[in-house]
From TrEMBL:
It comes from Sphingoaurantiacus capsulatus. It catalyses: dTTP + H2O = dTMP + diphosphate + H(+); UTP + H2O = UMP + diphosphate + H(+). GO terms for molecular function: hydrolase activity. It is an enzyme of class 3 (hydrolase). It is found in: Cytoplasm. This is dTTP/UTP pyrophosphatase.
């Protein structure tokens, strides 16, 4: 029997896995350097981090490791996570009325040690945000610590004028790609 190891401390990733009937046998948060390399494109960045996170978790016999990473980009500029309210406010000002690309990469390492990965890319467009809307959103604490400074599954959903792609990918784990990778790795998933 194959056991799933989730290489992430994100509660959203656990909730998304539950949507496809999976509960990780073990959760481990990998400690890797998440700095952007000079000239690194957003998709390459997300893919590199997902693969590094998968490799950073010790895999036991009969275990499949699943890791993911999400990057929010405006053009080629990768936006940082909102580490505090000041950064979050600046990110929301930047995203106001603009189109952004949300890239989530997923990587698995199967029981034989084979690494597989996929990238999901979605387009999200915010409405023009008034200063009072930004202030009210920042005051909720929703989006702190998240790439781009917002959580689409929270109150920021009311700011989304347009979205194309994978909603679950924007939340943090594209379920279509994840399911395919897990099936290929031998995990029993519907």
């Amino acid at each position: 029997m194959v056991s799933l190891v989730l290489a992430s401390s994100s509660p959203r990733r656990r909730e998304l896995l539950a949507q496809i009937g999976l509960t990780p046998a073990r959760i481990e948060s990998p400690d890797i350097d998440e700095a952007v390399l000079k000239g690194e494109a957003p998709a390459a960045y997300a893919l590199r981090l997902a693969e590094e996170k998968a490799r950073a978790v010790k895999r036991g016999e009969g275990e499949v490791v699943l890791a993911g990473d999400t990057a929010v980009a405006v053009g080629r500029r990768i936006l940082p996570p909102a580490e505090n309210e000041g950064v979050q406010r600046e990110l929301l000002k930047l995203l106001s009325g603009r189109r952004q690309t949300v890239i989530t990469a997923v990587a698995t390492i199967d029981t034989a040690g084979k690494l597989r990965s996929r990238v999901s890319s979605s387009v999200v467009t915010f409405k023009r945000l008034e200063a009072s809307e930004i202030d009210a959103y920042v005051a909720t604490g929703d989006g702190l610590g998240k790439a781009g400074g917002y959580a689409i599954q929270g109150r920021a959903a009311g700011f989304i004028r347009f979205m194309s792609g994978s909603y679950s990918g924007v939340v943090g784990l594209p379920l279509f790609e994840t399911r395919a990778l897990l099936k290929a790795a031998g995990v029993d998933v519907l």
